[in-house]
Amino acid sequence: MWMGLEEVSEKVAEYAAKDVDFLKYGASGHKDMFYISFSPRVQKGIVDTGHKSGMTVQAHTTSIESFYMVIEAGVDIITHCDDSGPNRPLPQSYIKKMVERGIACSVMAITDARMTALEEASHPFVPRKKASRENIRAMIQAGATILLSTDSGIENSALAADYASISVNVDPDGKLGESHFNALVALEDLGMAPMEILKLVTSNVAKSYKMADKFGTLEPGKLADLVILEKNPLKSAKNYRTIHKVIKAGKVVNIDALPLAPLISNMEVETQQ
After folding, report:
1. How far apart are CA 7 and CA 26, in angstroms?
2. CA–CA dist 100, 143 (Å, integer)
3. What's phi and psi for 149, nearest 5 deg?
4. Whole-angstrom Cα distance, residue 220 to residue 129?
């Protein structure tokens, strides 16, 4: 972030030349989320350089102004675009601009049940999640191309214990293997139509990453990556959990042979007794 436009552009070109599938940058801070990370000029340079290299470019935003800046920079995807700060929803005009530019929006939706549980626990994230849900409702109504985000990671039992007093386990939104299923139910709670929910985990993803010629729909000539469900997801978003069979590149995956334990173990944290 100490570099000028020219040097940043050179670094982005170096990244794009490596074996990567897309580029992502932080338009605002991650820990200190109220800070803007790059000037509008540099953000435009990052996006332009990525596009010249044939890359899809997405950005992380955590505030109203960073959301607006990445739209102006020309990104393809905004990551957790529903997060607009501690308690302020996005202006409708900003959401409209995102839709008009054809920018996809990756959200972190939580269910009605989780929202209620957070409120009952007086969780500090309540105002933030209320604003997030208001943003997602507005995006659904505006016809935005919505994807799913998650800040999931490998859980560390020692560190998790530090947050036990404020943790809420109802429909978790930050847990590998659970978050996306819960988010689909959350989007149903927020009023998204069943077919739109199906599209956001299939064709929306493929189109947003500019890979619709290979993935996203069932058509001759595309890669045969399929999930077959036992129940109709258009009847209820909870039916996405009823996985009957997984097919990868045309071959059935032996689900029973998959490991149950994490492949990456928790890092060890020494604690003093």
Report:
1. 17
2. 10
3. -115, 160
4. 42
For 165, what's the count of Cα atoms within 13 Å in the CB-facing half-sphere? 2
Record the pTM: 0.88
Give the residue from 115, 243, 105, 239 showing the smallest Cα distance to 185: 239
Using CA atoms in the order 216, 182, 129, 197, what is the torsion angle rounded to 10 degrees?
A: 30
Please state, in angstroms and rounded to a whole number, the distance separating the CA atoms of residues 22 and 209.
8
In whole angstroms, give the CA distance from residue 38 to residue 187: 32
- The model's pLDDT over 3-62, given as tens digits with 9 standing for 90+, comes to 999 999 999 999 999 989 999 999 998 878 889 999 999 999 999 999 999 999 999 999
Question: Crossing angle, helix 112-120 and helix 126-142, to 10 degrees?
Answer: 160
Gap between the terminal Cα atoms of the chain: 41
